[in-house]
Amino acid sequence: MYTNIRIKTVTHQLIKIRILILSFILERVIVDGVPAVFAGTFYLNVTFTDIISTNC
Questions:
Q1: Consecutive H or E run containing 25
Q2: Is this model's pTM higher than 0.85 or not?
């Protein structure tokens, strides 16, 4: 029961973080253009694999 609640709060925080990062990346894309998209997706993949591996 407790772990289930904890997982829910963690995923909720992850979604918040993801939205923040995505909005930041979108701002950068408007400024920097296409290369920022590739950098952004790569960065997201790396950070989320890190977060998932540390949480599990």
A1: helix 2-32
A2: no
